[in-house]
Amino acid sequence: MKLAVIGAHGKVGSLLCKRANGTFDVTAFVRSPAEFDEGINVSLDIDITNTPLSKITEALKGFDAVVFTAGAGGKGLDLTLSVDLDGAVKVAEAVQANGIKRFILVSALKTFEREFWWDSFLRSYYIAKKYADEVIIKMDVNYTILQPGMLVDTAGTGKIMDPTKVDAYADEITMKQSDKLSIPRDDVAQVIVECLNNDATIRKIIPLISGGIQIKDALALVG
């Protein structure tokens, strides 16, 4: 499988490239040269903010799967809308135009529920994620939308909560206790790899936080 990782310079993207390398034929799309494990292809052909859809579509020709894990990282409203909203949708449109088999989007926990995030300092980020998710689920693409809680840099555990129970649990915890709704970035990267190997996750929205179930087994509960 030829895999394109959009946002490979980010923490999740970098971890994903390392995990996927060897299993897939990975190309890391970045804005500037970056260090990756030997054997990972690097492309500068896509700048999410500035590259038009036509060139994104051309750059993604021939790929079997695309992962979008780019983000503005809280660097202002304009960039958040350009990357997290328009960037995600542009890449999905390129996936659709090319007939690419899989598209995996890294979003955020409970994007569809304004009450959950409206009073948060992440409001602008969540607005962008909400509308990107809503647009993409209506498109003719084999999406998998991952909605992780707070991303942390601790070592991955290889385990998550049953995704079918995460939303109800998050309702009890609330956004103000986001540390209880966290997941290591490396576990998100492992989830992406497992989803690429599991067609039952196609056209699914999967909330993610740490838990006690092995990732592969937890994803089997989604179908």
Beta content comes to 15-25%
Which homologous superfamily in CATH is the superfamily? NAD(P)-binding Rossmann-like Domain
The CATH architecture category equals 3-Layer(aba) Sandwich
The CATH class designation is Alpha Beta
The N- and C-terminal alpha carbons lie at a distance of: 23 Å
Helix count equals 8
Q: Structural class from helices and strands?
A: alpha/beta
Low-confidence stretches: none
- The total number of structural domains is 1
Q: Level of helix content?
A: 25-40%
Number of strands: 11
String of helices and strands: EHEEHEHEHHEEEHEHEEH
CATH topology: Rossmann fold
Secondary structure blueprint with pairings:
Layout lengths: L1 E5 L4 H10 L4 E5 L11 E3 L9 H7 L5 E4 L8 H22 L3 E5 L7 H4 L5 H14 L6 E6 L1 E3 L6 E2 L2 H11 L8 E3 H12 L7 E5 L4 E2 H6 L3
Parallel strand pairs: 1-2, 1-4, 2-3, 4-5, 5-6, 6-10, 7-9
Antiparallel strand pairs: 8-11
Helix pairs in contact: 1-7, 2-3, 3-5
Summarize the structure in words.
This protein has 223 residues and is α/β, with parallel strands linked by helices. The chain has a single domain (2-220), classed as 3-Layer(aba) Sandwich (Rossmann fold). The chain contains eight helices and eleven strands. Strands 3-2-1-4-5-6-10 form a seven-stranded parallel beta sheet, with helices on both faces. It has a two-stranded parallel ribbon with strand order 7-9. Helix 1 (11-20) links the parallel strand 1 and strand 2 (25-29). Helix 2 (53-59) packs across helix 3 (77-98) and helix 3 packs parallel to helix 5 (123-136). The longest helix is centred in the middle third of the chain and has 22 residues, at 77-98. The protein is globular and about 45 Å long. The two termini are 23 Å apart.
